[in-house]
């Protein structure tokens, strides 16, 4: 299976992913998505190479705290929004794959 961390193109997709997570866990845990600015600071791209067009950042994010936050997770704070974060934390993740 060839899967990647999820890229989110709209608020609708974001909410669908949240529902999938909630149905599986009965909560909204911090969850990895496939976004990063590791290649160039402040230039966010999805794992498939496309630039961000949709974002749902938490207030004040992305902030690159301690100059070391280059990955993206969802469901941050009570608003369940996006946050940039250190890439080596262990969180659940959402992957997608294309049907052939």
Automatic annotation (TrEMBL):
PROSITE patterns: C_TYPE_LECTIN_2. SUPFAM superfamilies: C-type lectin-like. Residues 1-96 form the C-type lectin domain. Coiled coil: none annotated. Gene3D superfamilies: Mannose-Binding Protein A, subunit A. InterPro entries: C-type_lectin-like, C-type_lectin-like/link_sf, C-type_lectin/snaclec_domain, CTDL_fold. SMART domains: CLECT. Pfam families: Lectin_C. PANTHER family: MANNOSE, PHOSPHOLIPASE, LECTIN RECEPTOR RELATED. This is C-type lectin domain-containing protein. It comes from Oreochromis aureus (Israeli tilapia).
């Amino acid at each position: 299976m060839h899967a990647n961390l999820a890229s989110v193109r709209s608020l609708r997709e974001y909410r669908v992913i949240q529902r999938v997570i909630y149905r599986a866990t009965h909560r909204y845990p911090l969850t990895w998505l496939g976004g990063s600015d590791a290649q160039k600071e402040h230039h966010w791209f999805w794992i498939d190479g496309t630039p961000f067009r949709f974002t749902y950042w938490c207030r004040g994010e992305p902030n690159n705290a301690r100059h070391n936050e280059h990955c993206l997770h969802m469901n941050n704070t009570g608003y369940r929004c996006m946050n940039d974060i250190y890439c080596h934390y262990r969180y659940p993740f959402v992957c997608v794959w294309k049907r052939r």
